[in-house]
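Final paragraph of the annual report: two paired records, presented back to back.
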Amino acid sequence: MFPHAVGRRHVHRSVAMGMPLAVLATFVLAGTASATSSSAQPRVTRTATLGDLPLGAFSNGLLPGTVDDDRGVDLGGIGSDIYPAGREGEFWTVTDRGPNGQIKVDGKKRRTFPVPGFDPAIVRIRVSGDTVRVLDAIPITTSSGKPVTGLSDQASRDEAPYSYDARTPLPYNANGVDTEGVVRAKDNSFWLVDEYGPSLIHVSARGKVLARYVPKGLGLTGADYPVVEALPAVLLHRKTNRGLEGLAQLPDGDLVMALQSPLSLPDATVGDASRTTRLLRFSPRKRAVTAEYAYRFDPVNVVDPGEDDTSELKISSVVAVGRDRLLVEERTDRTARLQAVRLTRGADILGGPWDSDTTSPSLEQLDDPSAAGVPVLGKRLVVDLGTVAGVPGKIEGVARVDHDTLALINDNDFGMTDGAEAFDARGRLVDSGIETTVTYVRLPRGI
């Protein structure tokens, strides 16, 4: 049991999954949103907010000694995905790689890791009234039980990691993962997707990496867990920071993972201008990708009126709503729309010319893939979240609560912003004020 918080911070100790966990305070920061006047429109029925918990206390409660200075950062970033945990109001969530930002030095952006010892974690939460409580958390570890960390993997592919002020280089870590999507299998293990590889990661119920599935030809060496080159090699052309982001589990146990953005194929300029990305189906039983689908974004100014930069389009969440049906979230940082799609055999492009990086024009270069004979997934708009009052920005996780209700979770980036002003002269975080929230949205026509 976790009592109500008394004051702004209040840390408890408990035991989660057999390990000590510094948990957790709750603090009410948002009230239940009022319904709109018309029940015929999508509406917010609940908003709940995560209270403040020092990131060092959270991390060291899971793996003692991993964080020596959290620089005033609170637990956040758990909104990378959300998945029902089997009890009403309870969900599994996952952090991303940890607090990170960008600072320009000599005209070039550097990727900063203010808390380099942070270890990504799977976090179980409960939505109770207008409060989000952390029930327990599972650190992601290597075969020998060490933290994987969120640091960049490879100097040849990933951004160089730096300290909070972008002045001191940090070491790369072959174990590092930038986790995004999460689902829980029937055997209580977890599946995650990662942006670095990009990769699909199988994790035990206690957080140990059982296998990391990466694109053929990645050549990741030095990891303290099994690395299996099982994904199409074409994924090596993922944009920096735009790897695999969404993950869904179909009723038969197969997984569907979404590439956040179009591939940089043949180059970054094409990738930034393209509106065609890819979904992949993976069989845990076969340990192989069994299908691949072309997915076409709507124009960026349709998804986000006023935005004209196509590269701002992303998929952040995919949700199974039937044997072969998904909800796909198209978004920018400001708004999002959910589309219903059906996976059909006729739309499978796996192993065809579009999986070769020598095909010209590439899938990403086609202005109209359908006209070129590419089977693009059909889609139907379910809800434009930008028109629903009370939905925050940067929604990265979507879960189905019941027939007509969705739970949305935002990524608050641990309260960080980009730029040197993200930290004060003492090296303490200047918090953005953006909180982690879980928002329930009811749809009048169901899902």
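The closing record of the year follows.
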Amino acid sequence: MSNTMKASVTKGLGQGFVVEEVELAEPIGHEVRVQVKASGLCHSDLSVATFLGGEFPMVLGHEVAGVVTQVGPAATQVAVGDHVAGCLIQYCGSCVNCLSGRTHICLHPEATLRTADQPSRLTWNGAPVAQRFLAGFAQEALIHENQLAVIPDEMPWAPAALLGCGVLTGAGAVLNSAGVQQGETVVVIGAGGVGMNAVSGARLAGAEKIIITDIEDDKLERARAFGATHTVNSRTTDPVEAVREITGHGADHVFDFVGVRPVTAQGIQMLGKGGGLYLIGVGGTDAGIDVNVKAISNAQKVQGVYMGSSNLKRDIPFFASMYLQGRMNLDDLVSKEISLTDIDSGYEALKDGHTARVVITDLS
């Protein structure tokens, strides 16, 4: 048995997003059917659709929030009627990493997917459709319960959709990966949407100085609304000198959301004794770093970060709670709300520096 619904289908590299009637299978095992209320546009979806590719046709989208309408026979963590937010982190729940709470580095993430001998979750004209990520660019989605977190009913849908990706990645890098302590100094390189969440995380951690660097003044201005204490335009000012002047001795934590080799190199130079550089963004094909051991001989470290080292079942409800208490700014992340038919123009809008995040909220 299957149900027909509208989904935005990507039929080939660079062919954009086209709304079609597709069939969604009944939930099996730990799967949960979610009526999608909001779905964010993330650059990783666009990358798959435009140059990374995969099995076509496919339905993309992973910044999902909605209401549970049906649960599979083995599902125990969510119930019909629950409001949920989805997340890219796939975890089995039984490997040694999962059992130690490090679900973001699960050894068997494929446990959340259907096996090759099971029918496709999505079909179009009777043929399988690849479900890339959570397939949230649709009216409904079938998602493994391990990739869903229950959120308060009063949480608005548009910011809720951002919790499981940009918020976890940015704020999680600060709170989980780096473990920023009160009174420490933080530098955020790159004032995009994810960088703004790092600023929010630094505020929650009690960082004394939160310095943000970018090349666009309007983005730096927006950063102050999220809680940045200092802003540096790295196009007109040497950011390394500026950070050393503001901190007096270099930063305790530097978060690179840009991922371009010369910028990453500046990140290392910004570190004080014992400081850490955290690599989150991958902005270029040559993204990387050349580490001179002498340059980090003062007990500094460089660490890669995946999904903010998050435990989604703990962290998504926490950030929702911080938002509802007025302690985390998510409203200013949502620059534009669009319909399911407007994904191509939504991604076009994201090219404008003034636009933080675009969210599909009209799924009719």
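The chain has two domains: 2-150+330-362, 170-306. This concludes the annual technical report; the extension proposal builds directly on these records.
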